[in-house]
Please model this.
Amino acid sequence: MDQYRRWKDIEQSQITSVETTDLEGRLQEAAPARDQLETAARDQENQIDVKGFEGSGVMRNEEVSHYLADNLPANHLRGDRITRIQYADRFDGDHEGNTLGVCRTNPATGVSDIQINRQTPEGSMDRHMMEHTLVHEVGHNVFYNMGEHNISTWEQISANSAPDGYVSNYARTNMHEDFAESYAAYVRDPALLQEVNPQKYAFLKQSVFGGREYGY
Model:
């Protein structure tokens, strides 16, 4: 009887070992699919809501999403920092000028909603201008989320700029617009930024874009 029990114990141990090995194998086979689902879920959570651009006559929602994803770092397009980018079919301006876009940011959280407006009272007609405005407004959100040390450093760089050390007249408005315009130039016209202010270019390269450079 003792010999029989020993045989049964050995047999049960072998069966358990086979079942455990089989289970581990199945879990390993399922891991890639599980990882893909988890990644897709995270991507969905971090996806920015892009809407209304079909009404612009210049870019569709999908084109806006692809343009930004193709040209900006993924950590600059986090859905928990920019909840929405929306085209508003309205003109915000008068005979003295107009507002092409607005980045409304909660200073306490760094979370923004971005609105892109008509370029003219009649509508939006220039894709180049719209792309610039999109990157400019994203730049405002990046500014709020780059940390106190970097903000302080930028404040000094901007304040010490030479009269011709700005990429546009609008950049002279304040350090916030200087950053957003410089950010857009770094992505869309890096040669211009490097020419007018190498210090700003170096700061953006090292502290904002993690060494990534563009070659327009």
Confidence is low (pLDDT under 50) at residues 38-45. Residues 146-216 form one domain. Residues 2-45 form the longest helix (44 residues).
